[in-house]
Each structure stands twice: as C-alpha cells, then as structure tokens.
C-alpha cells in the first residue's frame, strides 16, 4: 500500500520579539475585528451546529464576533481551499472534519497541499456516527439492512453530506466488512441529506450524532447502530448497539471536528485562538450540547490535532484504496 503522509505542520510557537515588526504588532492586538470560521458544508448539519456553538463561546472570550461562513461543495474542498488561500493572520479558520484527513487519498490533485497549507489550532472533539433510518422504515436492525442489501444488491441507498466525509466512508467501510453493495447518494451538506432521508428519497444514513440528535429525540428518525468501538455515552444512544456487536465484526468509524488556520499564522495568534477554543468547549453550554450528542470533547494542543489526523489519514487510506474511491 502506498502510504499517504499527512504530516501536518504544527504552529510555530515563537515569541513576539522574533516576528517582523508588522506581524508582531498584529499579533499583540489580536483580535481587533471579527473572526470568520468557514464551515465547508451547508447550514443545518452537524459541523455547522458545532461551529456555531463554538463561535458564540469563542466570541465571548475573544471580545469579537465569530462569524460562521458556510461554503459547501467539492467534498469540503471548496471551503477548505478558501481558508488555505486566506491571509495567515488568525481571522479566517476552517472547521475541519474527517474529510480533511482523507481527501488527499481521494483526490491527489487538490488545489492546496494539505501538509503545508494549514496550521492546526485544536481538536474540538470526536463522536460516533449513527446509522439512522426513518421512523417508519422496515429496517429495525443492522441485520435487516444487511439482509435487504444482499437480497437487492445496489438498491438500498445511503446518504452522506458529501463524498469523502465520515458518513460516506463509514458506509464504504460497512459495505466492505458486511460484504454488501449499497448505493451511495452524496449531498452538499448533512441538512439536505437528512431532508431526503426524512422524505423517503434515501433509505439510511451514517449521520453524525450532532446532526440527528434532535430528530432522534423527536422520534422522526430511529437509530439502529453506532459506529464507535463502544456504545455511546449519550443517554439517547446508550441502548443502541455498536455496528460491530450487531453483526459486523471489526467495524469502527468516528467523526471529528478540528480547527485550522492558514499556514504561517503567527504562533502567538494560534495560542490565543487555542485558548479561546479550549475555553469554549469547556463552557457549560457547549458541554451540555456535546454530552447530549455523544461528542467526546478533546481540548488539547495544536500538536495533538496534528498527531490525531495523521493517524486517521493512514488508517482510512486503505479503505479508499480497496474501495477504489475518488472524488473525480
């Protein structure tokens, strides 16, 4: 296997005195205007909701508004590229997800070099995806899905918020380990995907827990499996079996959220953003949302995010290769 190296560059932790005069001045006054977090998905999905919750809390700590800018499309590439080409001043960030780690495997000709274009800020958290169906779906269990897929190869469909996202690759891993053929239907964001799931245009979705939490609570969707190695700690999902224990041994997949800035952002600015992000995810309001959705909050250093994503990239590159998956 040709390994995919995503040695993400940690921010340079340099003192203000070592910066150029202009950069030092900018870093010392940061932030003096609103900060923009690009969400590379449509409004209404899990990433969008997490970013908005974080943005409110970060804005309170930074003393500036944090604006959410939704830029869906291209399997997160459009929004991510916008940040890669933004000024490295800390005022533009991207809420990266699972796709950030796997896109180099899916599409070798990205408009940016993932290992050079970004400076990690913080791993926000990790969570299982949830295999969900409509409340009136005939599929009551994971085994029901497997039986239907084997009886009707390629006719059982699953939605995702876009090619290369956690929902997509979770489905591809399911196909591989359960030895079934499912029909992948990609959307430009979790919101449109869930709308069509509710409307009956698709059969199921390996959705992020944050995207479907309210719908599960309201009874509009039904969870039949979680993608993590252990059952979710969320009260709403605690009784839902893992996909592995439901009959697909070895199955494990998880979503994650991480903040990145453009490469070259001054170390002191990265440090200020990291501190604000840490404070945001440990706030009572964010914790309540995270706990309800099974999100394991992971406030750490920029290096922690870099190490985690390197591991994810290497692990999923084999799934991409074996499944002959690409964004082209």
Automatic annotation (TrEMBL):
<comment type="similarity">
    <text>Belongs to the UPF0065 (bug) family.</text>
</comment>
<keyword id="KW-0732">Signal</keyword>
<feature type="signal peptide">
    <location>
        <begin position="1"/>
        <end position="26"/>
    </location>
</feature>
<dbReference type="Pfam" id="PF03401">
    <property type="entry name" value="TctC"/>
</dbReference>
<dbReference type="InterPro" id="IPR005064">
    <property type="entry name" value="BUG"/>
</dbReference>
<dbReference type="InterPro" id="IPR042100">
    <property type="entry name" value="Bug_dom1"/>
</dbReference>
<protein>
    <submittedName>
        <fullName>Tripartite tricarboxylate transporter substrate binding protein</fullName>
    </submittedName>
</protein>
